[in-house]
Amino acid sequence: MKQKQYAPMSVAEMALTIYAVNNGHMDKVPLNKIVDFEAGLQAFAKSNHKQVIDTINANPKLSKENEAGLKSVIEAFLSTGTY
To answer: Which of 6, 51, 62, 68 has the fewest other C-beta atoms within 10 Å?
Structure first.
């Protein structure tokens, strides 16, 4: 994971990407689409699941609730098929 210059990611945004990778959600994504997938996932989370992102940023621990939130965001994004 590499952050763009002058555009640092929040803890929740980093956690979202790392959780997706570590739990196999990106295994079927073609290598040439990984950057697009990550950007789409981040945008989707910010626009459709802002409360999950805000909750994780407020309490940056991998609690059961935060993990469930990350999983639900990723599954909802994958169901759209847009990346």
So the answer is: 6
